[in-house]
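User: Hello! My lab partner asked me to get a predicted holo structure for this protein. The small molecule is flavin-adenine dinucleotide, SMILES included with the sequence. Please write out the structure tokens.
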Amino acid sequence: MGKRIRYTKEIPYYGHFDVVVLGGGPSGVCAAIEAALLKKNVLLVESTGMLGGMATSGLVGPFMTCYDRDGNIPVVGGLFRKIVDKLSEYNAVYKPEELDSPSIYTSFIERYHRHVTAFDSFTLQLVLDKMTQNAGADVMLYTRFADCICENGKIQEVILSALEGLVAVDAEIYLDCTGNADVAAAAGVYTYKGDEQSGVPQPATLMFEVSDVQDEGFMSRSARPDGPVKAYKTPVEGKYKVNHYRVFDVDATNSESMTNAHIKAREQVLDAYKVLCNQTQGFENAKIAQVAPVLGVRESRHIAGKYKITVDDIVNGTKFSDRIATYGYGMDVHPRNEKESGNFKIEVAERYYIPYRSLIPEGCDNLIVAGKTISCESQAAGGLRCMPCAMAMGQAAGVAAALAVTNGCTPENINIDKLQTILREKGAILD
Ligand SMILES: Cc1cc2nc3c(=O)[nH]c(=O)nc-3n(C[C@H](O)[C@H](O)[C@H](O)COP(=O)(O)OP(=O)(O)OC[C@H]3O[C@@H](n4cnc5c(N)ncnc54)[C@H](O)[C@@H]3O)c2cc1C
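Assistant: Hello! Below are the structure tokens for the protein in complex with flavin-adenine dinucleotide.
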């Protein structure tokens, strides 16, 4: 190890909250909204200038299916559905029941892609601003979780890197929705990156949007070039999201790795754009409308939790008694290097379940983790990492945090029947 510096400084204290949510992506926003709706004093901290995570700063879309494996029955409701309904007020969404696969909304992918939700990322930013405000949550954008002070297995304070400098806040319960398990790792929870054996995560992709596409041209499927040119129509006329090349072996918790990956991905965007314009009917006059400001990271850390979801659980549909969400999308595990091929190698159950224990980390008593970093085998995360499921987990984490505050207990010790009852009352689907 190289030279190390000891840094000691008094910093401003910004106050006490019932619940502090770190990370404002699909899981974090839903967690914050839900805890605030349950009358808790909530702070939501987000490192970029917008809420929505990969759905906005990553320009990822569509929301993957919210139906079971075969696309017959909805399996995600609750806040996800409310967000879709809000988007609809702005004509910024095609609802899942309106879309089927294969189509220009699924880039002609058929398997597991029935009833995706096509949405406009900018409108989603506005909708999430309004929903967090209306719920009464305080939001700090441009503010990054930097560290935490722990004692006796609990987080005492979190240190935030605000634009004005380092500041501290404290809370009864903390929610790690950073997509990197930053809080859990800083609190000393055991974490592993990507595949636990190799340490290699799923690849990253820099998403972008193109405008001026002629839908009729793209609809002629025979004109689509071979290979992974994946373009998904959005509700904005002529605008498509493009999910093209991949950057392998990116460590999203390391600045050097992310810097190199993002630079490489920028070049890939230009290549992808050329392929689209030159080889894909309908895209001849397409223009780059915007490139995501943030690199799309599919997989980073996973936490060691009270239960680790296995591939077998996803294949067999293990029905956990403490389930807080259900999902049906396939195990979408992208190649981890240039030589590997293919996604969806293993068939999933008609629907599978997320147990509450997989959100509860080992070794930190006042922390809940939600979203793509929960405790699960890397392959098992291939489906549940998608945004509708991340939102369902976030909603559950928000309710769980509120219950823990009300009852003065740890998240591990809340009443699971009560948690499930509240979730069902709020439209969540658990069966
Ligand atoms: C290229 C790509 C394509 C995908 N395609 C689809 C798709 O078509 N459909 C689908 O449903 N899903 C898709 N996914 C998966 C999905 O986008 C993510 O798994 C999902 O967004 C995870 O939600 P999350 O809340 O766990 O994390 P994220 O969306 O990553 O949100 C984490 C948030 O925390 C913030 N943050 C990070 N660190 C800190 C910190 N230290 N302090 C404060 N804030 C912090 C981030 O800025 C971000 O806003 C795709 C993902 C990628 C990368």
